[in-house]
Hints:
By secondary structure, the chain is mainly α.
Amino acid sequence: LRKCSAASLDSLAGIFGASYVLPPLLPALQEGLRHSDQWFREASILALGAISDGCMAEITPHLPQLHPFLLSQLTSQDSLPQLR
């Protein structure tokens, strides 16, 4: 299910572009990345990775904020094994 969901997001971002994908997805991603539940954070990171190719230009300005967060998730003991 995870793989198919990520593939669907990737396809949507590639076909429709950021102008259609980001507005409905960005609020959910922001909330998910800040969520206390590690599964929500993992799902949000997966979704972010899935849309990154199709939305690269629009995500690039956010990288200075995302990069430290993503690195912290790699080293956090609270992170799921999929993130390490």
